[in-house]
Specification:
CATH superfamily of the largest domain: Glycosidases
Shape: elongated
CATH architecture of the largest domain: Alpha-Beta Barrel
Distance between the termini: 59 Å
InterPro entries: GH (IPR017853), Glucanosyltransferase (IPR004886), X8 (IPR012946)
Organism: Calocera viscosa (strain TUFC12733)
CATH class of the largest domain: Alpha Beta
Membrane topology: Lipid-anchor; GPI-anchor
Enzyme class: transferase
Number of helices: 15
Largest sheet: 8 strands, parallel, barrel
EC number: 2.4.1.-
Oligomer: single chain
Bound molecules: 2-acetamido-2-deoxy-beta-D-glucopyranose
Low-confidence stretches: 6-13, 504-552
Strand order of the largest sheet: 3-6-7-8-9-10-11-12
Helix content: 25-40%
Radius of gyration: 25 Å
Mean pLDDT: 88
Number of strands: 18
Strand content: 5-15%
CATH topology of the largest domain: TIM Barrel
């Protein structure tokens, strides 16, 4: 049935003419009319405060953020500029799920612009490459953001991480990224959302990094339930006049020629040669690239560390001041004609890619961590602990100190913290490794308290702990078994909405920079210490822990 013209005009004017869902088939993206969809746009996030976290040579990463989609006036100011690029997408790196995004999301939708939304927040709201885990705390951050955005027709995709893996050593993070993709896919499906699940990878060098392609394959291999929908590559290889398909992108195209899922450049725009000519744009959307690649996002609309900004904003926030490379990007992007091939009906299905094996440059196990189980963690807190952490639920600094202290103290007793530790290389995940820091500290405190034979000094922890002697050792034991008995078989299930787990991330944040997440968190720094404790012999386990260990 055709809609009357007046109704169409009304729907368009109110933004109610929804953008169609983009979906994937094989290695391509399509709109429902069967035409190929190419990502074409800019990253859109103000620069947050950045820190290198004291690590020599570390790339600066944001410690806070400004939510660009909560700023209705800012969106109204910027959309005419982004529209003038004939863009169809922006990428946003961090949002505050408790703020109202309706005005911006509707305004972008009306302008025909989709949003690719990263779910991570700076610092503690992202998978920490230095000691990775996939916990109820992170799952809550991710599902809160999905809950806040799932209603918008222009949510194209969500990213479950950005540049978490950036070296051989940090490939141990990959099982946690893949578990997050699995659980977020299931969660989106349970909400009836067709938004795609993506990840944005940093690029490596062809000569020194052999983890990029194994990581890409790892995230796309295996069952549909655990593989990504959309692979993003932050690619800065084409630099100005010296750039060429052969010199800049041919090796990347070759490496991904049999890749089974859609791929795009989640960032591009090298600044080695200013002003940027954007002469890579016709090639990005041209016949040499589109066999696998589906467009990309120029980095960055707003000013960003490193000189990547395309515009400045006046100090009163009312005016956009475009830079010298804006007009060049505008002329290149507006001149793009999408190659509509193949169409959906002629697109071939792709062959699955093998999951890469482990070697010294790719450490990830194919055994994934379980779905973070807030009900199990709450059950332990409520019934199985004789000594609970009662300090700040949000102070990750204090929590980090206490983890170090109690895990070292346990080590001195011949015990260890493996029940709350996760290891993506061995594929071993302690039964409380998916819990929030309050649950994990309470477990470690209770373990220590039991080992001390409930010496009152054994449940103090500088005033951060409270004993509950009405929890008997045998009562804790049976409570722990009951908590574990209700864990879904295999530990993988569809998460439900935010569990309200007792640790907040407290992170703020904005910030886009060519490298943006996977930041180190004080709360998790202790896990590095746990590795050292692992070598000690286990002995003299308290009954509580004995029961738990026997069970799994
Ligand atoms: C301009 O916007 C930024 C956030 O993007 C905000 O921090 C700043 O306070 C605003 N300045 C004025 C004068 O409104
Ligand atoms: C933004 O302002 C800074 C500082 O004046 C300047 O260095 C930079 O080139 C400007 N960027 C643009 C895109 O105009
Ligand atoms: C626009 O695209 C056409 C076809 O790709 C090309 O021949 C032409 O040079 C482009 N014009 C500009 C200004 O880039
Ligand atoms: C590790 O395996 C990948 C293939 O998965 C290979 O490309 C890489 O060269 C290997 N690295 C080493 C050090 O063997
Ligand atoms: C102490 O443990 C008992 C038994 O699990 C529980 O009912 C009670 O609420 C706990 N008391 C406190 C103060 O947590
Ligand atoms: C908790 O422990 C920290 C670090 O050990 C200490 O500085 C703080 O005072 C303690 N908090 C309370 C409430 O005692
Ligand atoms: C989100 O915004 C609320 C209200 O302004 C603020 O209290 C909270 O700290 C913010 N959360 C994050 C993660 O920035
Ligand atoms: C995981 O186990 C491997 C192999 O035993 C070890 O080298 C690595 O340090 C462990 N990782 C953590 C985070 O403990
Ligand atoms: C930690 O303690 C448990 C229980 O005694 C033991 O089975 C395990 O081998 C220990 N882990 C390490 C890494 O020592």
């Amino acid at each position: 049935m055709l809609l009357p013209r007046a109704l169409i005009a009304l729907l368009a004017a109110t933004g109610a003419l929804a953008l169609p869902q983009v979906s994937k088939k094989g290695r391509y993206l399509f709109t429902p009319d069967g035409n190929r969809f190419y990502v074409k746009g800019v990253s859109y996030q103000q620069q947050g405060t950045v820190s290198t976290d004291g690590a020599p040579g570390a790339f600066p990463e944001p410690t806070d953020f400004i939510d660009p989609l909560a700023d209705a006036a800012g969106c109204a100011r910027d959309i005419p500029y982004i529209s003038s690029l004939k863009a169809n997408a922006i990428r946003v790196y961090s949002v505050n799920s408790s703020m109202d995004h309706t005005a911006c999301m509707n305004a972008f939708s009306t302008a025909g612009i989709y949003v690719i939304l990263d779910l991570a927040l700076p610092v503690t709201g992202s998978i920490n490459r230095a000691s990775p885990s996939w916990t109820t705390t992170l799952l809550d951050v991710y599902t809160d953001t999905i809950d806040a955005f799932v209603q918008y027709d222009n949510l194209l995709a969500v990213n479950i991480g950005n540049e978490v893996v950036n070296s051989d050593a940090t490939t141990e993070s990959a099982p946690f990224i893949k578990a997050a993709a699995r659980d977020i896919k299931a969660y989106l499906a349970s909400k009836g959302s067709g938004a795609l699940v993506g990840y944005a990878s940093t690029d490596g060098s062809d000569t020194t990094d052999d983890w990029r392609d194994p990581l890409a394959n790892y995230l796309a291999c295996g069952s549909e339930a655990t593989s990504l929908d959309l692979y993003g590559l932050n690619n800065y290889r084409w630099c100005g006049a010296a750039g060429s398909f052969e010199g800049s992108w041919a090796s990347t195209v070759a490496a991904f020629s049999n890749y089974p899922i859609p791929a795009y450049f989640s960032e591009y725009g090298c600044v080695a040669d200013l002003p940027r000519l954007w002469n890579e744009v016709p090639v990005l959307y041209g016949s040499q690239m589109v066999g696998e690649w589906s467009g990309g996002l120029a980095f960055s609309y707003f000013p960003a560390v490193g000189g990547y900004g395309l515009v400045n904003i006046s100090s009163d926030n009312t005016t956009v001041i475009t830079g010298s490379d804006w007009a060049l990007l505008q002329s290149e992007l507006s001149n793009v004609t999408f190659i509509n091939s193949p169409t959906s009906s002629s697109a071939q299905t792709t062959s699955p890619v093998a999951c890469p094996g482990q070697n010294s440059s790719f450490l990830a196990s194919t055994t994934l961590p379980p779905t973070p189980d807030a009900a199990k963690c709450a059950c332990f807190r409520e019934s199985a602990f004789s000594c609970s952490y009662t300090g700040s639920p949000t102070d990750t600094g204090i929590q980090g100190d206490l983890f170090n202290y109690v895990c070292n103290a346990l080590g001195a007793e011949g015990a260890n913290c493996s029940i709350i530790a996760a290891n993506g290389t061995t594929g071993t995940y302690g039964i409380l490794s998916d819990c929030d820091p309050v649950t994990q500290l309470s477990w470690a405190f209770s373990y220590y308290y039991e080992l001390s034979n409930r010496n009152p000094q054994g449940c103090d922890f500088s005033g951060n702990a409270t004993a509950n002697d009405s929890v008997s050792t045998s009562g804790a034991n049976s409570a722990a078994q009951a908590c574990l008995a209700s864990v879904p078989s295999g530990g993988v299930f569809t998460p439900t909405a935010s569990s309200g787990s007792p640790s907040a991330t407290g992170s703020g944040g904005s910030g886009s920079s060519p490298s943006q997440s996977g930041s180190k968190s004080a709360a998790q720094a202790w896990r590095v210490e746990v590795g050292a404790l692992g070598a000690m012999a286990g002995a003299a386990l308290a009954a509580l822990v004995g029961a738990v260990v026997t069970l799994l």
